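Can anyone check this?
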Amino acid sequence: MLVLAAGSLFACGQEEDGDSTLAVNPSITMPVPDSSWLARDPLPLDQVRFWAYQLQGLSAPGAINALVNSHYDMLVLEPTRTDWSSDDRTFDTRGMVAWVKGSPASDGAHRKLVLAYVNVGEAEDWRWYWNWSRGWKCRGNPPDDWPEYILACDPDGWGGDYPVAYWQPAWKDLLLYGVQQVGEADRDYASIVDEVIKDGFDGIYLDWVEAFDDAEVAAAAEEAGLDPADEMIALIWEIRDYVGVRHPEFRIVQQNAVSLVEGHPELLQLVDAIAQEAVWFDGDATDEWDDPDGYDSKNDEELTTYYLGYLEQYSEGGLPVFVCEYALEYADRAYAKARAAGFVPYVTRTPLSRLTTTVPPGY
C-alpha cells in the first residue's frame, strides 16, 4: 500500500499555561500526553492482539483523539510533517506520536506501540526531499532534473510514487545517512529514518520492500550486475545497523514481499515482524473512503496459497504475522480466516484515511 499525497494537515501550536489541552488549529484541540502512560513500556510485538493502520485523514477533527481512545495495541501511522506539498510541513508529528504513546494498549498495563510508515523502495513527490520537477506522464524516461535512482512509475497506480534503484548510494543517503542532504531552518533531520527517530516513533513499517520483485527495478539491478533480492536484504541490514546504534529498541516491520525470505533466511533476524496486505481480500488504489472499489475484491485461491506458504516460514521463524485485509461485506470472513491461520488481522479499506468501521472480534 502506498500513501497518497495527503490533504492539508493541521499545524500544532504550543501548550498554553494552565491549559489542559494543546491547540492544533482554531477548531481542534487534543489532549496533553498522559505522562504516566508515556513512561510505560509499549506492548511487545508478539503480544499485540489488535492493530490499525492510518496513512491519511489525520487532520480530520477528532482523528488523533480516536487513535488515543482506541483499544489498538499497535498503530502504523504516516509521519505527516514530511508532506511539504502544502502547509503540512508544520504538522506536529512529534506531538501526535507523544499523544498516542501516552495512551494504554488493550491489556491495560502497557502503552501503545507506534510505528512510522516508511517507503524504502519508492520516492514520493510530496516529501520534504523532493525539489525536482513534477508531472511526468510515465512515458519515456523521467525528466532530466530527476535523480538517476528514480526508475519508473508505481505499477499499482498510486500517483506521485516512483520505484527507485534502492542500492544506489544517493538513495541510501536520503533514506538513512543524510550526509549530502541540504539542511533547512525548519527541519531538524537529514534523512527519512532520522526524521522518524527524532519524532519519537517506536519503529518503522517498511513499505515497498517488494521493489526487488518489480520488473523495472529488477531489470535495472541486473543491468548493474546486481541481484535485486540480495540488494534489498543489504538495505534492510543497513537500516537495522543504523537504527540499532541510535535506538536499540527500535522495531522493524516488513510489509509484503513475503518471498524475499526464500534463499535469505537471515531476513528473519533483520526484521521483527511481517505484515502482509490482502491475503484474502483486496481493493483498488483509491483515496475515497466510500469508493466500493476499495474493498471486497476476492483474491484467487492460488494467490492466497502463495502468501500463506511464505508467511508460514515467518511464523516458524518466530516472527509475529500481521495481515491487513480490504473488506467490508466480507470483514467477518476476513477476520475469521486470518485468526484461524494464527495471524493478527486488521480489516479496513484501501484509502487508509480513518480507523476501520469493522473492528476486530473481541476489540
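Reply from J.R.: I decoded it. The radius of gyration is 20 Å.
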